[in-house]
Amino acid sequence: MDYKWEKIEEHGQSAIGFLEMYKSTLDNQAKILAVVNYFPQLPFSNYKEEATVNFYFEGNEGILRKSLFRSINNDMGEIILSNKQKMFPEKTNEKIEHTQIQFYIVEKIPALKYYTHGDFAITEEDNN
User: Fold this and answer.
1) Does a structural domain hold residue 73?
2) Averaged in consecutive runs of 10 residues, what is the pLDDT profile of the chain (128 residues)?
3) Domain presence at residue 85
4) How many domains does the chain have?
5) Parent domain of 76
């Protein structure tokens, strides 16, 4: 498969974390959108570096071989590691070792429009 990633959006700041969106086309057979969330480094977690990736895959599920799936994930791992200095500004001995992913096969890549991100505190009052 021949493809490369193009960054299409970037939002955020170190206090709330960062979000990036990337797109790619795989040999004109499939389209893929990746949304990467870099969580803020917080003092109570020793400034741990954490990220998640949501993939949206538009194309024939049959081309999703293990090697392609691994390649797509490795690419995002390289992107995350290459962005460490900017996305994780606090210097720490806690290194990012893994990333949580979700992979969706969709009929059409959604036209996502960024709105906001950050954190939300769940309280007992919210549950009543």
Assistant:
1) yes
2) 86 92 88 94 86 92 86 93 90 81 93 82 70
3) yes
4) 1
5) 7-121
